[in-house]
Amino acid sequence: MEAVLWIVLAVVLAIAEAFTATILVIFFAAGALAAAGAAALGAGLVAQVIVFAVVSGLSVGALRPIIMRHARSALESGERPFGIEAIEGSRGLVVEEVSADHGMVKIDGELWQARSVDGQEVFLPGAHVRVVKLRGATVQVWHDDLPDL
Q: What is the pTM (predicted TM-score) of this model?
């Protein structure tokens, strides 16, 4: 019966992890599963709690830093960005007038919807711009007066 309670706790904790962005609660779910295994093998309640605490603590201490290191973006980790992360900071050529509510730029041979960062500036076709921010499938651009990044 104790094993079933530990499994229920593990499931509840795993579901709770889906509602957090911390990647922390899931390690306690792993500890609860380990405690369920100890209960199934006939360990006493104190031993089950110790297994839960040890497995949860080791998981948080050993696995979480590794997962968090791999979950960071390339810009945060100092690596060279690729894919969509590489768009921010890149240069573009205006192909259709860019203003607060419309425009197109060409970045590395691809056409992107573009908007002016401040909503006031207008960039005419042929102007060179720099991507400041990516919002969905739309880039926000500004004058390309920054040095190469």
A: 0.52
